[in-house]
Every structure is written in structure tokens, then in C-alpha cells.
Amino acid sequence: MLVLQDWTLFLKQNLEAFIWLLALVLLAFMPVDAAGTSLCMFHQLGIESCPGCGLGHSISAALHGDLAMSIQGHPLGIVAVVILIFRIIAVFKAYFDFNKIIKEWYE
């Protein structure tokens, strides 16, 4: 039971990193030419140009290695991927560094 509590605590303390990681994984599995249904509120209202959707498609194209399509979708898509990867690493690193300090303090 202690192991399950450790995992739930780990998940709670790193929730931001897991959300960003899940978003990147979902965008990586999204087809680059995704023209199907959308959950975007702007698309539901009939507005075709949505900066959020452009960024999502740009990130998806960047994760698929299509840099030209990524820049065409949104100029900051590649930058967003890099920032998100660094943020995920920073959140996990902060968690493990903090726990290392606490463990050393109590020993």
C-alpha cells in the first residue's frame, strides 16, 4: 500500500509535467493533416482561423519531423515544443532534487 501512496504523491507533485507530457504524446499521435472533427470552440462557431489550433497542428507537424509544415502552421510551434520539453524536465528535476535534499537532511 505504501508503494501506491508513493505513486499518487509523485503524480500530485508532478501533475504539470504529466499534463504537458500527455499533451505532447497526444499531439505526436495526431495526424499532421488532421482535418476531421475538432473540439475547438472557434471551429464550432464557424471561425476557420484559430491561433490555438494552428499551434497544435504546428507542434504535431514538428513532432512528426515536418518542420516546413510546422512553421507554416504557426511560427512558434517548434519553439513551443522545445519550451515544453524543457519545462517537463525542469519539473521532474526540481522534484528529484528537492527529495534528495530532504532525504539527506533527515539522514
Describe this structure in words.
- The mean pLDDT is 82.
- The chain has one domain.
- It is built from 6 helices and no strands.
- The chain is an all-alpha fold.
Number of helices: 6
Termini distance?
24 Å
Please outline the major beta sheet.
none
Cα Rg: 18 Å
The chain-level structural class is mainly alpha
**SSE order in H/E notation?**
HHHHHH
Strand elements, count: 0
User: What form results from the Cα inertia axes?
Assistant: elongated
How large a portion of the residues is in β-strands, by DSSP E? Answer: under 5%
Poorly predicted parts = none
Q: What proportion of the residues is helical, as a percent range? A: over 70%
How many structurally independent domains? 1
Rounded mean pLDDT is 82
